[in-house]
């Protein structure tokens, strides 16, 4: 009986330990999540040439990043300690690199570093088994890039093959938008701003395909600019 009680006590203590360890990646995600807003704002400022404002956002992000490190590294789970530590170290280095890029006037390089930090954050969320609208919005960027490449190629050379490529890329982008619309919870889905952005992007992704099939290069270009704006605003507000 005494052995059985001891065994049960050992199993219970180990289950609690495993449960605590399992929460650690999610704890790190929760600690870092607010900083992502700084990075989205900084990237927007860098894209539009507002370097001083971008630097303020990155500086605040770096300061907050340093403050979370001691707390998240106290008792990291064995299976995640290396990944979490690497994420924190790389992230801080990338923020520093982004600031240096802005100092020397290379806004594009700064944007790439900020994007790399955000990409690593969303990968960490996936590792922790987390996914929501913000992750979905972040993932539309590759589809937007593919549509931009296809539409630009079509504008430069309006051949049938290029039109078909644009239509396919627009369809893939639209599918991503529809998926994100489904991921929006009731509160967000009812917001006027979200509805204007997501519905506008879905509608325009259909229109750019129609314009390509009709051979209207200028209209394709116009819808491309519109869609890029929708994608950027969705990411800025809901990414």
Can you describe this structure?
The chain is mostly helical and 239 residues long. It has two domains: 22-130, Four Helix Bundle (Hemerythrin (Met), subunit A) (Up-down Bundle); 138-238. Helices cover 86% and strands 0% of the residues. It has ten helices and no strands. Helix 1 (2-47) runs antiparallel to helix 4 (107-127). Residues 1-23 and 72-80 have low confidence and may be disordered.
Overall radius of gyration: 22 Å
What structural category do the secondary elements indicate? mainly alpha
| Strand count | 0
Mean pLDDT: 83
Q: What is the CATH T-level topology of the largest domain?
A: Four Helix Bundle (Hemerythrin (Met), subunit A)
Q: What is the number of independent domains?
A: 2
Shape: globular
How do the SSEs run, as a string of H and E?
A: HHHHHHHHHH
Largest sheet: none
**Which second-level CATH architecture of the largest domain applies?**
Up-down Bundle
Oligomerization: single chain
Strand content: under 5%
Count of helical stretches: 10
Relative helix content: over 70%
Spans where pLDDT lies below 50 across 5 or more residues: 1-23, 72-80
CATH class of the largest domain: Mainly Alpha
- The span between the termini is 56 Å
């Amino acid at each position: 009986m005494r052995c059985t009680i001891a065994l049960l006590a050992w199993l219970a203590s180990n289950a609690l330990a495993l449960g605590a360890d399992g929460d650690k990646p999610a704890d790190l995600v929760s600690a870092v999540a607010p900083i992502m807003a700084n990075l989205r704002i900084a990237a927007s400022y860098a894209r539009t040439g507002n370097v001083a404002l971008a630097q303020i956002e990155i500086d605040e992000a770096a300061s907050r990043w340093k403050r979370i490190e001691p707390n998240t590294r106290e008792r990291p789970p064995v299976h995640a300690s290396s990944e979490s530590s690497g994420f924190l170290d790389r992230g801080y280095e990338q923020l520093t690199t982004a600031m240096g890029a802005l100092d020397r006037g290379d806004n594009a390089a700064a944007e790439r570093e900020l994007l790399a930090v955000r990409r690593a954050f969303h990968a960490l969320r996936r590792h922790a088994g987390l996914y929501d609208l913000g992750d979905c919005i972040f993932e539309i960027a590759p589809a937007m890039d593919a549509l931009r490449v296809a539409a630009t190629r079509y504008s430069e050379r309006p051949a049938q093959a290029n039109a078909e490529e644009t239509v396919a890329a627009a369809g893939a982008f639209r599918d991503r938008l529809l998926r994100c619309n489904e991921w929006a919870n009731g509160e967000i889905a009812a917001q006027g701003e979200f509805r204007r952005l997501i519905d506008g992007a879905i509608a325009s992704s259909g229109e750019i395909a129609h314009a390509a099939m009709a051979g209207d290069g200028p209209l394709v270009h116009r819808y491309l600019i519109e869609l890029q704006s929708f994608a950027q605003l969705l990411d800025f507000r809901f990414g």
